[in-house]
Amino acid sequence: MSVDLVRTPSRTPREEPARRTARFLARRSGRLHRKAWAAVFAALVLTSLLLGSFALATVSALVGHPRVERYAATGAVVAADQNARYRAKPWGDAPTTVTQSLTERIRVPAEVVDRLAKAPGVRAAIPDSSFPVALAGADGRLVPGPAGDAGAAPVYGHGWAAAALAPYTLREGEAPSRAGQVAIDGDLAARAGIRPGDRIRVQALGTPASYVVSGIVAPEGRADDTGLAHQGAVFFTDDRAARLGGHPGTVDAVGVLAADGVSGDRLRSELRKALGGPHPARDAVAGSRDRQDSAELRVLTGDERGRAEFLEAAPSRTSLLDLLAALCATVLMIALLVVAGTVGQAVHQRSRELALLRAVGATPRQLRSTVGREVTGVATAAAVLGAAGSVPVFLMLLWMLRDRGAVPVGLDLPVLPWMLAAPALTAVLTLVVARVSAAVACGRVARIRPAQALGEAAGEPGRPGRGRTVTGLAVLFAGLGSAGTAALQSGELAAMAASSATIALIIACALLGPWIARGAMRLFAPLARKLGGPGGYLAAASTTANARRLGAAITPVALVVAFTGVQLTAGATMDHEGGAQARQAMHANLVVTTGQAGLPARATQDVAAVRGVRAATGTLHSTVLLARREAGDPVLDRLPVVGVTPGALPGTLDPGVTSGSLRDLREGTVAVGAARADSLGVTVGSQVRLRYGDGVTASLRVVAVYERSLALGDFLFARDALAAHVSAPLDTRVLARVAPDADQAAVRRAVRTALSGVALDVRVAGAPSPEHLLSADRDVSQVLTAVVVTVVGGFTVIAVLSTLVLILVGRRQELVLLRLVGAGRRQIGRMLRAEAVIVITTGLVVGTLAAAIPLTAFSLSVTGSLPHLPPVQAAAIVLVVVVTVTAGALLPAWPALRRRCPAALNRE
């Protein structure tokens, strides 16, 4: 390439010649190296697409809110504060407050309604209470709830006065006026073919009862295009609803209808004044809550009103945000490594060309400007294309979350026009990363003296820079230290330390890639020479002489192995060990379930009274909050718990008690898992301070310590004690132990008969599934993990292909020379296959070590077992690596090896 170079001192004002030279060099280089830049283009497109889609998901979760459905007609809603707080002073820092949402309803004293109704600007203050119900038509078949992408939504009962809050209006028939009448949602009526005058059976918190359908109602302005099912509604008379709800003297919330001409701000102000000052309602709420929690009743307006009806939306949104933030950090780190490696390899393979230009008079500024212009042209188009593609990927992610039921009913994740700024910003970030990577990659060639550049052009091998080596070793030791921390800690601190160790080890692998390659060649070169014949000898010589190139090929392979291994193994290990404990704990051989709502407490008593049943326990699920410190920082954990019948243990469920006795489990006591007891430093007889799901704080005496906490949770309660703090105290199922000498079929028939009047759609079966408590964000975590592993795994696979293609494009002259000196196609093919085997083996070993070290530390500290990865998933990882590396190493060379004329290999 003949180019007239212009030397322009930095102090001269005549910069236009240098710019013209840089533009000319960039245009020529872009045409000559289009294959190399094509690989960079692919990596940058996927980087921009990944970052843009996850940024959109994060922004959508950030602005997400509970949908306003049942309170759409209200100007404001008055409800209790559903947040718990814990304030503590970290080590050497200012006091910090952490907040956690409560999952059970904190109820509002009914006497507040009169105070609110008298406030200026209020047209009406209407109390509302809801409770789960199940419906069965005249034929006895259960009526499913309204359908959505995630399946049937729950159905709730209300008093008729609350119909004005939506508002629900009559479409057929009339409002319920007697205790035996109900009005039902039009969707429910259509699904079951119910008409006014029909008789149906309805079950609330007690036994089913027969009702006459007086009317069919539907809410005005219902939006059914959100992809989420709305809640079904059944309206009773107000007195009947108050009795069925089971909470006399309290309501869920108070809907306030504003008078004509009253603005939302004025209404909020007047309602706050009405609630101000001391009054019995506030004292009733404050008396049971922690002193750090707010006892004030909240006035909710606008989108905030949805918080009063969809309690699960706020904690689910918080969990989704936390998971997205962690995954975005991982995706960003991987994208930076991949982009830096791909761009760096594209520039490095031209180091001889750049060194030659430097030797014949090109200034450092001209070289940097030339490479920068090339990268800018490629990266701009790639970033824009990736940003455009991130929108459909984001929409697909939302659909998957809803389809798998990971987004609860009522949580809106909006898609707003201004959110398109997020992929635009990630596109700019992709461009900046590409420019910085190119500047770092060509920095050494641009800085060296012309005479030294001639030596580089002659092909003198260079070692990794001292700064890179020192940094890599420092990051490696930091990763090992984090892994050691994970082994010595427990819970979230162990998970955080293991995650940090994984990231550090992956970065260390990228920085120390050339040294890893040198070490690999010390092991594999003798084997290649001995077993591979001439092709193996060529592979050993080539990889030994180009450790930097081999390290660039190994790094993305190790990256994909480590990343997918960590993402898949962490959850699989917890599930595997928790499932094993759940199977060990399950001693019941009969289970009773129902299609909707749940089973009342009487069901357990009736099952236990059946002849042939030795023991029976209901399983009542809820959550508790535990305030603690972790490394000095305040933490407020929300933990799933279960309430059981103590006398039925361990005949039905065996938690594996190591000390104490579960027969002492009653009101004011709790059993604690062994791992949690160790972390809290408690034993039998100690006190544990917890907050129930409804915010009530209690100091509980520990009566037993058990070992199967991964299956049954960290705290075990007596069912009756936990029921007082649950919005709807209905058991998920009843577990029973049938005597060995009893007739199993006869017992099942007797149980079904005994419960025929207790619950609708009773189902009795043997071999119950294990009782395995899972965190509330389990569904979201599973969906996001599957998406991240698929998308990011595919991204890194393409990065492996791009890197290998870049390496082969840079080796075309080497292949030409080998053909000219007499190497045959088969010999070169064997050489490439031997190199691919070296890359595959080294990448798998290094990636496995980078994942196994922190995973082992985490698993031993949390589960007491080694990490577990299903063999099918492990085989899939190996297969993907083998196929990808083989394709990247052999397929691009196949057209060149087919030609007979070696000179043809020099063609682009």
Could you characterize the architecture of this molecule?
The longest helix is centred in the middle third of the chain and has 40 residues, at 364-403. Helix content is 51%, strand content 18%. The strands form seven sheets. Strands 7, 8, 9, 12, 13, 14, 15, 16 and 17 form a nine-stranded mixed sheet that branches. The chain has a six-stranded mixed barrel with strand order 23-24-29-26-28-27. A four-stranded antiparallel sheet has the order 6-19-2-20. With 908 residues, it is α+β, with helices and mostly antiparallel strands. The model is unreliable at 1-15, 223-228, 456-462 and 902-908 (pLDDT under 50). 50% of the residues are buried.
**What does the average pLDDT come to?**
80
Shape: elongated
Uncertain segments: 1-15, 223-228, 456-462, 902-908
Oligomer: single chain
Number of strands: 31
